[in-house]
Design brief:
With about 170 residues, the protein is mostly beta strands. About 15% of the residues lie in helices and about 40% in strands. It has 2 helices and 11 strands; from the N terminus they run αβββββββαββββ. The protein has helices at about 5-20, 90-100, and strands at about 30, 40-45, 50, 55-60, 65-70, 70-75, 75-85, 105-110, 115-130, 145-150, 155-160.
Amino acid sequence: MTVSNTAYLKGFYDSTKALGAKVISSDFTLEIEGFEQNYLLCKQAPWPEVSVGGEVEVPMPLGATMWQPQQAKFAQQGQVAFEETVAGSIDNMLINILSRGGIFNARIYEGTPQKFLRAKRIVDCFLQIDNPDRDWENRAQILMFNGTMFFHYFGEVIPGNSGNYS
């Protein structure tokens, strides 16, 4: 049954609006330490969050069970995507990261490095990049480097330098 009582719906509207503006997924940048100039080339990255790593099943009498949380999960992973430039900015960055042992630290900003609401520091990261496809018929797409970033996040939040990022 559809709820069409406008006063009832207005109450939900007012309560939702009072919680504040929603965060837009696209409003982020990833800045890799030592390769700060490439932050505008990262199209997709994981937003780190702290939570439990899973559940522990605790057996009880009569075949019953209960749950208990595992330790906090700080070893995380997520999808990344980088846009390549004619100068080979990402290819060169990947080679340089690998020549330094493959490990790097980074900051993920809610906003940009110049103007952000908050940032999260991730450490001991590494990238597993899938081979990009080149296609003679594809004249309408930027060359993307996609893969998985493995990283560690310990809940470090850097306060922002701006009330907004516009």
